Every structure is written in C-alpha cells, then in structure tokens.
TrEMBL record:
Keyword Oxidoreductase on entry: yes
GO biological process, one term: cellular response to oxidative stress
Taxonomic lineage of the native organism: Bacteria, Bacillati, Bacillota, Bacilli, Bacillales
Name of the featured protein: Glutathione peroxidase
Record keyword Membrane present: no
Active site: 35
Domain Thioredoxin span(s) in chain numbering: 1-158
Similarity annotation: Belongs to the glutathione peroxidase family.
InterPro entries, alphabetized: Glutathione_peroxidase (IPR000889), GPX_AS (IPR029759), GPX_CS (IPR029760), Thioredoxin-like_sf (IPR036249), Thioredoxin_domain (IPR013766)
Gene3D superfamilies: Glutaredoxin (3.40.30.10)
Keywords from the UniProt entry: Oxidoreductase, Peroxidase
Name of a matching Pfam family: GSHPx
GO molecular function: peroxidase activity
Amino acid sequence: MSIYEMEVTTNRGERRQLSEYKGKVLLVVNTATKCGFAPQFKGLQRLYETYGDQGFVVLGFPSNQFANQEPGDDAQIAEACELNHGVSFPLHAKIDVKGPDADPLFVYLTREAPGFLGSRNIKWNFTKFLIDRRGRVVKRFAPTVTPEKIESRVRALL
C-alpha cells in the first residue's frame, strides 16, 4: 500500500485522493485548536507559505481524541483555524487517529514511522509525519517538535 492510494475527506465533506499530491513533499499533522500546542498552527502556516510554491503542502487532520481539545464540528474548526491562526493549508474532516476507529491514513503512517520505542500509537495532538516526493514517510516528529525545528528537513526534501 502507498500513501497515494489513500482517500481522505476535506473539512467540506469532499472525498479526495492523496494521489493529488504526487511529487510534493507533505507534512501530515493531527491537530486540535484548543490544545496547548495550537500556537504551532502559525509555524505550520509559515512553512506552507514559504515553501508551497516549491511543492510543499501541510495537511491538517483535526482529532478530538486527546482531552477533548477539538470539540467543534468541521466548520467551527476551519473558522477557528483561519481566524485565530491564519491557516490556509488544507484541513480535513475530524477523524480518529488512534484506536479501533483510527483513520486508515494514520494506521498507515504509524506503521511506516513508529514512535518512541516502536510505538504505533499517536500520543498527543500535533504529531507530524514528513513525506517525501515519492510518497515515503521519512520521519515522524513528536508534538513538542515545532515547525521551526522541522524546516531544515523540509528544505532538504525540496
């Protein structure tokens, strides 16, 4: 299986194939607007604006699985992201990123890039997965790793 075989739902309810992003460098992030790491939205947006014309895309996937830090519906989440953080990168429908109902994308990502001590679980909001232009998951970043600390890795893949 490849990431390009995955289908996701946008925050407007439209189904999309990740194959639309073939040839681009992707940063897939599980997000939550009420999380203490929410200030990272600004850094993610800055990366998206800085490197977007070079083939870089941030894909945000809201989840409410961690301390109920994403309680809103998809429209409320999109509004909060835009108004509070200036987000214009693609946001998707709220999903589960762990457990029995985990979205297939996150099952795939955690299998390809396990976390600390080989864990396949997402531990918290703002876990990030960097994917190269060939669709390979090259690195998983913990929630505490800021977008600024990832920038050199993004540049190297571009």
